[in-house]
Amino acid sequence: MPAIKTIGILTSGGDAPGMNAAIRAVTRSAIFSGFSVKGIYRGYRGLITNEIVDFKTQNVSNIIQMGGTILKTARCKEFQTPEGRQLAYDTLRQHGIDALVVIGGDGSLTGARIFATEFNFPIIGLPGTIDNDLYGTDKTIGYDTALNTIMECVDKIRDTATSHERLFFIEVMGRDAGFLALNGAIASGAEAAIIPEISTEVDQLAELIQNGFRKSKNSSIVLVAESPVTAGARALAERVKNEYPGDDGRVSILGHLQRGGSPTASDRILASRLGAAAIDALLDDQRNVMIGISNDNIVYVPFSKAIKNDKPINRELLDTLRRLSI
Ligand code: F6P
Question: Which helix (H) or strand (E) holds 7?
C-alpha cells in the first residue's frame, strides 16, 4: 500500500452528540501531521453518489459544541452490496483518498470491516453511537450526552409521577443494549431498569411487582430499554394493566430527543482524544481497528472484536440500583 497522503472522513448510522467534535479532531490532527483531508457527506452513500469536498481547518471551526453531524449521515443499503462497494471504491480512487476514518456504530463498523477486507483499504473506526454497545471501549461518543438527556427527562417526569402517585414506564434507546436504561435509572434515582441483558434470565416485571415496587412511596419510575427482548414500555404497561389490576401505569417514550443536543464536556473530550488518536493510528501503520478508550488509555480494537462481541453490562450497577431503590 503506497504512503497515505489523503484521508477521507465520514459519519454513518445514527447520529450521536460529539460526532462533530470527532470530525474536528480528525481533520485538524490530520492537517497538523501533513495529510490532506476530504469530507464525505451522508456516510457511505456519499461515496456512491460522489458527495466529497476538501476539508481545511476552517471547515471544522465552531462545531465542537454542535449536536448532530455537519457531514450528515445515512444508513446506506447499497453499500451492503458488492456493486455498491465497488462504486464506493472507484469514487475513493477518483478523489485520491488513500485511507478512511469512519465514525459510527455497530452497522457502520461492520460495513467498514467488509470494505477494508475486500479492497485492502486502510480504515480506522471511531465509536460514535449513543448506545455504548461497542466492545473494547469503555464509552462511545454520544453516550454520556444521551445519558444526561435521559436524566433530565426523567427528572421532569418524576414531578408529575410524584404529584399523581403514578407508576411510569419510560422507554429509552439502546438498540439491543441496556447501558442507557441501567445507568439512566441510577442517575435519575429510578426504581428499576428493565434491560435485554437479563430479560431472558428472570421475569423482571413480575419480580418488580412482587417486591411491591417501592414500599415507602406511591410513585415509581421504571426505565425500559427499547429492545424486542424487553418488549418495550407499552407492552409492559399493558401487562401491568391485565395482570395486576390496580397498578395502572403510564408510558413515556423518549425517542429521538435522546440523540440531539450539545455534547457534554465528557463527550467532547472523548471525541477529541479518539479523533486525534485515529491519525496517530494511521501514522503507526494500524489498519482496520476501532479506536477505543479503556481505563483512560487509548486502545486499538480490531473491527472483528468491536462488533462481534456482546459488551457485558456491569452487574455491580444492577446491584446498586436494586439496593438504592428500596
Ligand atoms: O444506534 C442509535 C439508535 O438511536 C438506536 O438507539 C436506535 O435503536 C436506532 O438508532 C434508531 O434508528 P433510526 O434513527 O434509524 O430510527
Answer: strand 6-11
